[in-house]
Design goal:
The chain is α/β, with parallel strands linked by helices and about 100 residues long. It has a single domain, classed as NAD(P)-binding Rossmann-like Domain (Rossmann fold). The chain is built from five helices and four strands; from the N terminus they run E-H-E-H-H-E-H-E-H. A four-stranded parallel β-sheet has the order 3-2-1-4, with helices on both faces. The longest helix has 12 residues.
Length: about 100
């Protein structure tokens, strides 16, 4: 398998489509940054991501609040491609003006 094809960013890595996208990217030799929404009230098991073949070396998981643009930009930095797989994002009116 060809390695070191580059880094790709996938938002929504905890979701069905995001997790399958991550799986396929890892299988095809890409490194992946993924963002997940952190919710202290609903801790979710991420072993379905961390146990993927190649994940220990090539998967970085970031807790993200996508309303904070600077965090998203840091996670996208250096990515060849980005898959923005968001289910719902509620923006406050004052954030739209920034």
């Amino acid at each position: 398998m060809d390695r070191n094809k580059g880094r790709v960013c996938v938002t929504g890595g905890r979701g069905y489509i995001g997790s399958w996208t991550i799986k396929r990217l890892l299988e095809n030799g890409y490194s992946v940054n993924t963002t997940i929404r952190s919710n202290p009230e609903h801790k979710k098991d991420l072993s379905f991501l961390t146990s993927l073949p190649g994940a220990s070396q090539n998967l970085q998981i970031f807790n993200a609040d996508l309303e904070k643009r600077i965090l998203l930009l840091q996670q996208l930095k250096g990515a060849l491609e980005s898959f923005l797989l968001l289910v719902q994002l509620t923006l406050k009116e004052e954030n739209l003006r920034k």
